[in-house]
Amino acid sequence: MRRIVIKVGSALLSRGHEMAMDRMESLCRFIAELKQKGDEVILVTSAAVAAGYTALALDKRQLPNRQALAAIGQPLLMNLYHQTLAPLGILPAQMLLSAYDFDSRKRTENARNTIEVLLSHGVLPIINENDAVATKELDMLAVFGDNDRLSAHVAHYFSAEILLILSDIDGYYDKNPCEFSDAKIRRVVNFLTPEELEAEVSPNNAFATGGIVTKLQAADFLMKRGQKMFLANGFNLEDARSFLLEGIHRQGTLFVQGGES
Known about the structure:
The structure is a single chain. With 261 residues, this protein is of the alpha/beta class. Helix content is 38%, strand content 17%. It contains nine helices and ten strands. Helix 2 packs across helix 4 and helix 6 runs parallel beside helix 8 (212-223).
């Protein structure tokens, strides 16, 4: 039995100023496939702010407004997951975590114990940052960065075999594919340079706070601890499905310590 952490961002779950329910439904069906195979799944989700905006159009540029939108959006987002997962026979449970929860051995252990109980009963833990009170996590110098680094901590501290980050790109390219037509995906990455890990954060969605750099930082965190991360397109889940369900690496990037595969 594998334990898999899946992270999905705001860019995938929102479309303009609306929630992208078709993508959420595809994600939930994918999770159901993994669970039917016998895998344990933990979902780390963004989009609370996006969900809140569908109910109250506050100016997202102001931090207090983003926190208010997160507070409005958390129950809305969980309700959408509940409605989508119910026909698949999956019961979700919400957990709100922030950076400080991993700074304390006691808080981390408490969270781990909760995760173990939920998974042992077939429940899907759905984790998000506690954005309504954690100010640093919402500004553009985010502690975790659109849940990318949070998901890496979840994968490490909750003993997952692999972290799957679903993004709006097909994988990690050797150069910016928006600027260079000859850019190629790096299928396997064993090491990341300081320059790659310190580049400017550049989110592509109005509700996102991360970018490729926070994904690389998540990968680096896990590789240094002997764990794996797979970055794949979340708009089309075929590459993720092929990799995790069939063991075939068609597209996407696997980040793994040197010499492993």
